[in-house]
């Protein structure tokens, strides 16, 4: 019988919970602001972890890049906190990556909403004529 979840997935979920908690409570840099940790991908040997994040309230790419740089510089500190929190043989090195899927999703949703409202307006104009 195959396992339902891989160990890398379980470790990734535990890392996600731990990292998001430590970013919220331990990192006090105002350049970061509010951070959503969307996903954590761990390599099979648990040496590296890619942490996908989005920044709430950051509009420009420059602001996001600055916040991402701060997180990548604090990755050693966060790794130390995670190592104390989780019971892992090796704690992966953390690499933070900006995930723009939510931003793109919101932009696409607004475009779809605009197209639907324009289509409804066009059909109302045709029915009035």
From TrEMBL:
<comment type="subunit">
    <text>Monomer. Binds 30S ribosomal subunits, but not 50S ribosomal subunits or 70S ribosomes.</text>
</comment>
<dbReference type="GO" id="GO:0043024">
    <property type="term" value="F:ribosomal small subunit binding"/>
</dbReference>
<dbReference type="GO" id="GO:0005829">
    <property type="term" value="C:cytosol"/>
</dbReference>
<dbReference type="InterPro" id="IPR020053">
    <property type="entry name" value="Ribosome-bd_factorA_CS"/>
</dbReference>
<comment type="function">
    <text>One of several proteins that assist in the late maturation steps of the functional core of the 30S ribosomal subunit. Associates with free 30S ribosomal subunits (but not with 30S subunits that are part of 70S ribosomes or polysomes). Required for efficient processing of 16S rRNA. May interact with the 5'-terminal helix region of 16S rRNA.</text>
</comment>
<keyword id="KW-0963">Cytoplasm</keyword>
<keyword id="KW-0690">Ribosome biogenesis</keyword>
<dbReference type="GO" id="GO:0030490">
    <property type="term" value="P:maturation of SSU-rRNA"/>
</dbReference>
<protein>
    <recommendedName>
        <fullName>Ribosome-binding factor A</fullName>
    </recommendedName>
</protein>
<comment type="similarity">
    <text>Belongs to the RbfA family.</text>
</comment>
<dbReference type="InterPro" id="IPR023799">
    <property type="entry name" value="RbfA_dom_sf"/>
</dbReference>
<dbReference type="InterPro" id="IPR000238">
    <property type="entry name" value="RbfA"/>
</dbReference>
<dbReference type="Pfam" id="PF02033">
    <property type="entry name" value="RBFA"/>
</dbReference>
<dbReference type="InterPro" id="IPR015946">
    <property type="entry name" value="KH_dom-like_a/b"/>
</dbReference>
